[in-house]
Each structure stands twice: as C-alpha cells, then as structure tokens.
Automatic annotation (TrEMBL):
Organismal lineage: Eukaryota, Metazoa, Ecdysozoa, Arthropoda, Hexapoda
Domain of life according to the entry: Eukaryota
One GO CC term on file: extracellular space
Entries under PANTHER family matching the protein: GH10112P-RELATED (PTHR11461:SF211), SERINE PROTEASE INHIBITOR, SERPIN (PTHR11461)
InterPro entries on file: Serpin_dom (IPR023796), Serpin_fam (IPR000215), Serpin_sf (IPR036186), Serpin_sf_1 (IPR042178), Serpin_sf_2 (IPR042185)
Segments forming domain Serpin: 14-383
Gene: LOC111358408
Protein family per UniProt: Belongs to the serpin family.
Record keywords, A-Z: Protease inhibitor, Serine protease inhibitor
Protein's recorded name: Antichymotrypsin-2-like
GO molecular function: serine-type endopeptidase inhibitor activity
Length: 395
C-alpha cells in the first residue's frame, strides 16, 4: 500500500523508486529516478510560484544553476553508456501550438538530457500511435505500447515519456563455463534451481549485521553494478525499510566498501518494469505542475497569459544482466587512465563467499569522487519462470 510522503528537501532522490518497490512487495522491479529527475529539472527551469518551490524542494536544489549542472555532471557518462549498453528514448511531449517559446525547446537535450517534441493531442488516437511507434523504433522494438487510450485525450496538454533498455557489458566478463544451476531460496521459502554466474576477483565488498554488499565495474565509464544481499531470504523487506527510512543508507554502505578478493555468485536475470509515476510524484508533494488552471508552467509559452499543465509521467525500463553483455570495447580517451589489473586469485585459495542465492536489492550507478547517481534501482525475487537447464534465460 502506498503512503503519503510529505514534501521534503531532495525527497525525489530518497523516496521515489523506493516508494514503488514498497508498493509492490515480492515483485521484480527496476526503475530510474535519474530519468524522472532530468525532465523535472527542465520544467523547474521555467516554473514559477508554488510549482517552482515544490520542484526545487523535491529535487534538492537551491538555485537554477543546479538544474543545468545536474545533467552536465552526468553527460559524458551517459553518452558512454549509450555507445553499447543503453538504449534511451526520453521525451517531453507538449500539445502542438505556435505559442510555445522556442527557448523551451532549444538546447534542451544539451542542457537537460531530454528532448521536447510538439504533438497534436487534439487527435488522441494518432498521438498514441505516433508515440508508441517512435518509442518502439528508438528501442529496436524492445519497448512497445508505452501509452494507451487512458493516457491521452483531447484535454491532454503535456506528458513525459521515458523508455530505457540496458544490457550491461562488464569491464572483465564472467566465464560462461562457470555458470551453473544453483539453488535459489525464494522469499516464501521455496527452493528452486536457476543459472548463476560466478567469478573469483577483487571486488569492492562490505558486510555488517544486516547484509553484505558487493560492487562490480561495467566497461562503460563510471558505471557499476551493486548488489545488497540481506542475511536471510526473509529479511529483504526489513532491509528495504531501512533503505527507505535511513537517509543515504546505500550511499554510506558503498562508501564503506573495501577492495578484497571474493568469490561472487549471482543470477543472470532480466527485468522489465512499467510505471506511471504520476501518482507517486504527487504523493511526494509535487502537485502544482498538474494543476490545469495554475500549474506555474506558463513560462513554456511566449505569452504568459496562457496555461499548460503536466498530465502524465510514464516510464518503461528493461534491463538484462548476464555473463558478458553487449560487447567488449576499449575505454574512451576521456575515460581516464586504466585501473591496474588485479587478476583472479588461484582456485586453490579459500576466498570469502558472496552468493546471491536469495532475494536482493541492486542498483546500476554512475560513480564519481563527489557523487553517486543511481541510474537504475531494483529488487530481484527470482525468475518468473523456473529454468530447467543452465542454457535457459541466456540472452
């Protein structure tokens, strides 16, 4: 059950995706707060009055420079992801009119990472067909039917649409020959056997009384995959509550990690999640931008006497994690120097074990010296179907 969360500073970052995870217990989920934040930064840049206050508070910013600065800090890392691992369709669709200020459209991708398109919502069926065909084409048909007849009508003024497919390519791939059918304990106590990949290597690792966690590098610049594993198959709900309620719990856990040789074993998996964020962001306190009579977004128009409001925020995310990913590629020139190779430990050395054989929390992040951006966040409770051999679920 979803609960109301009072508007507080930076609560979009702290609460949005975790609110979704808590609303759908025992469900595999992956979603992106980053891809919701980017278009909201764009709207905040033109917002006024209560809408401006609500947006800046939820986003955690005190000045307009931070709105552009957010994407500026991520731009190179996201562009590197887009080379192989990430396919992204990211749009603000506004009802077609000549009254839209060209400044709202110009440099939107460069400054905010989001494209603004004009579309005729006066013809709902045509608009739905156009948006679905566009998103399907951009994502190579991996993500389809992101909007339907309940989303768009003749009164629709503006919607935000995000579709993302991510298939992570490891910095150093896992050996396919080491993937084995391994026992996985579901949260209900049932034990199944699923393909799990394994690797002995030096990873960032930490353990405490609640959980243990490991972080692994993708080949894409600054990108990492982190698993937080509760100490038993029944403790994930309590761990999720702690992540939701304790400020910066995941960030602090990752900061406490140390490099050590560990035998890491976890499932290869895929998760696809569709979410309508509209109700969630309203519960976080963002209400004015949805008010059709006083949204505070009239700065979108040349003539401030006109009004426009946001109607929907919809997102579909599809991720795939396996032994290799999309491709092997060299780091780009701007990615900085290579990290020193640490090589695997000999097989005869007894290593600490990290075995994700029960439900876990994970994220795919972009890690910098002064900030950590959770590009995708999710939970894995086990496959929706049980494979009968190790080759099933291999992408």
């Amino acid at each position: 059950m979803r609960t109301f969360c009072e508007l507080t500073f930076d609560n979009l970052n702290e609460k949005l995706v975790m609110s979704l995870i808590r609303a759908k217990p025992r469900t595999n989920i992956v979603a992106s707060e980053v891809l919701v934040r980017m278009p909201l930064c764009k709207l905040a840049s033109v917002a006024k009055g209560d809408a401006k206050v609500e947006l800046m508070t939820a986003l955690g910013y005190k000045d307009n420079a931070s709105l552009i600065g957010y994407y500026a800090g991520l731009k190179r890392a996201i562009k590197t992801m887009l080379i192989t691992d990430l396919t992204l369709a990211h749009r603000i669709f506004v009802n077609y009119t000549t009254e839209i200020d060209p400044k709202f459209i110009t440099y939107s991708i460069e400054n905010y990472g989001i494209k603004v398109d004009k579309i005729g919502f006066n013809f709902p069926k045509a608009a739905i067909s156009h948006i679905n065909n566009l998103i399907s084409s951009i994502t190579y048909r991996r993500i389809k039917n992101i909007v339907d007849e309940s989303d768009i009508n003749k009164q629709t003024q503006m919607i935000i649409i995000t579709a993302a497919h991510f298939k992570g390519t490891w910095e150093f791939p896992f050996d396919l020959r080491l993937t084995k059918l391994t026992k996985f304990q579901r949260i209900d106590g049932k034990v199944i056997r699923i393909p799990m990949m394994s690797k002995n290597y030096q990873f960032q690792h930490v353990e405490n009384s609640d959980c243990q966690a490991v972080s692994m590098h993708f080949g894409s610049w600054r990108a990492s995959f982190t698993i937080i594993l509760p100490n038993s198959q029944q403790q994930l709900p309590q761990l999720l509550d702690k992540i939701y309620n304790e400020k910066a719990y995941v960030h602090n856990l990752v900061k406490s990690m140390k490099g050590r040789f560990v035998k890491v074993t976890f499932p290869r998996f895929k998760i696809k999640t569709f979410v309508d964020w509209t109700g969630f962001v309203k519960e976080l306190g963002l209400n004015s931008i949805f008010n059709s009579t006083s949204s505070g977004l009239d700065g979108i128009f040349k003539n401030s006497s006109k009004s426009i409001a946001l109607n929907k925020i919809k997102q579909k995310v599809f991720i795939q994690i396996d032994e290799v990913g999309v491709a092997r590629f060299a780091r780009l020139d701007f990615a900085g120097p290579e990290e020193p190779s640490q090589g695997p430990m000999p097989n005869f050395v007894a290593l600490p074990q990290f075995t994700a054989d029960r439900p876990f929390y994970f994220d795919i992040s972009l890690d910098f010296e002064t900030a950590r951006y959770q590009m995708f966040t999710g939970v894995y409770y086990g496959p929706e179907e049980t494979p009968t051999n190790v080759n099933e679920f291999h992408f």
